[in-house]
Amino acid sequence: MPMGPVPTPLRAFRSTQSPESSRAFDGDDGMDGNADGYFDGQKRGAPLRGSSSSQRKTPKNRDTKPSLSYAARKASVTVFVGDISQVDRDDGNREVVNRVLMRFDALRRRLSQMEDAKELSNGIIKRADLKAGNLLMSKGIRTNMRRKIGAVSGVEIGDIFFFRIELCVVGLHAPSMSGIDYLIVRDALDQEPVAVSIVSSAEYGDVEDGDILIYSGQGGNFGKRDKQATDQKLERGNLALERSFQRGNEIRVVRGIKDVANPASKVYVYDGLYKIQESWTERKSGCNIFKYKFVRMPGQPVAFAAWKSIQKWKEGFSSRVGLILPDLTSGAENIPVSLVNDVDGEKGPAHFTYFPSLKYSKSFDLTQPSFGCNCRNACQPGDPDCSCIRKNEGDFPYTSNGVLVGRKPLIHECGPTCPCFPNCKNRVSQSGLKVHLEVFKTTDRGWGLRSWDPIRTGTFICEYAGIVIDKGKGKQGGEEVENDEYVFDTTRVYNSFKWNYEPALLEEESSNDSEEEYKIPSPLIISAKNLGNVARFMNHSCSPNVFWQPVLYEHNNQSFLHIAFFAIRHIPPMTELTYDYGTAHSDEAEGSSALNRKKKCLCGSSNCHGYFG
């Protein structure tokens, strides 16, 4: 029979946490009532303490297998969608982990959209992340329920998470509040807790230095203004860490880092496997606190160390190896875009004029005349009198922090002549870059684009800027267009994928919110060969992390179509940004000239089609 804490869905609750906080609980110390931070609503027996029989010394590195039976949890899960089998729920893989996370965030965004549209507060803190996580786990949409020591299947070192509950749904760290996760191992004579993962945040007294982490134990009310500090006890998570120190088992470490886009929140990065090298007690506020020295296992990919390097770059560009230009936009963007080559001696891409948006021909009319809204302040979610919201079928296309809720056939934004405020939340794609980007030289695909900052799912990255080309010229296959490698064409065939939430999860009828096929009023071809922005440097991938979305807004009584790029999933810093270039229609692909235009794909994805174009 399994023992120790079991990850279960969160229950509905009220919280005094600031509504600006977009995290499940960050507490690395024990929480009152249930120090392990699991919302299982169950009464627990006496906690495991150092004074019990489990305190008996255990030989270091003892090879004892954990008891990991979990039949009781299987029986309590109601499966909602059949595409996550019991096998995948028990032990995931990369595809399953990505799918679970995408479904979680799609549901969270929809819940956030619904909450934003409510005019009156009911006193319950808006925690769409907790609601989404609770709902998915209750319906069996989760993975890696088989808890174990060591790496978690499908979760890679360097993966980032913007919500603590995401760690739960993929099985990386089960408790939603506590910083220490453990399980109970038993042998013929004894049973004892063993730590499997920790979440570290420097604000709780943890000291971070490269591959070494000094971690503080849980409990004792340290850092709580309204409670008296007491000695920490050798029980629960603290006892598990002590036993892991004696055994020498590997422990997963997740680092909590301040979110540059929202300083009140954190981003969580999985930093790989560590072992505890030392443990001791210190006096703080007149009380004892446990300390543990974690040392990272060698030979693992860099993760947290990359974040530390980026911090140094932001302090001064001189520390960036291979820097060519600190800002290739020459001030055209509100955030500088660095140009870097640490691969070879090339000094930069071919000359082009940097321009942050589209240029239409004076004689080119894309759509019929259109008029903007009449809002005098900022457009408000749920306002039936806002014409721009009505064009979006009554829903604001973005959450309050500017994240895209879902792919739509066409998004209508407020235009330059709308009387609403310039900072209106319905102008996301017009407000410039949101993250610190870098154009860099790749090893085998020319120049590429990546970000110094972590990017949240649904975040606007940039639009595809350039010169709009007449469709007739493009279809004729003129020499200029045919030889242009910097063309974006909406008429190409793009791989379909599911990104939006599932209405049935919220007992909603399927509506246009779930439609992800674009409905563009007129084909659009853009050339960024001679004039363009950072989007011209994004390479193709058959498994991209960025997608394009048509956005329409009016200017001078005319509607103009733009192509905006958004993040498909969370993107760690220094990860190349890629999108699907698409392929020509079959009727346009006939003949040797079209075949010659196809290019060999070097994306390296397991789903690579071998070519694009």
Automatic annotation (TrEMBL):
Residues 150-296 form the YDG domain. Residues 597-613 form the Post-SET domain. Residues 371-432 form the Pre-SET domain. Pfam families: Pre-SET, SAD_SRA, SET. It comes from the Eukaryota. SMART domains: PreSET (SM00468), SET (SM00317), SRA (SM00466). One of its GO terms (molecular function) is zinc ion binding. InterPro entries: H3-K9-MeTrfase_plant (IPR025794), H3K9_HMTase_SUVAR3-9 (IPR051357), Post-SET_dom (IPR003616), Pre-SET_dom (IPR007728), SET_dom (IPR001214), SRA_YDG (IPR003105). The keyword Nucleus applies. GO terms for cellular component: chromosome, centromeric region; nucleus. Residues 1-68 are annotated as: Disordered. Coiled coil: none annotated. Keywords: Centromere, Chromatin regulator, Chromosome, Nucleus. It is found in: Chromosome, Centromere; Nucleus. Residues 435-582 form the SET domain. This is Histone-lysine N-methyltransferase, H3 lysine-9 specific SUVH1.
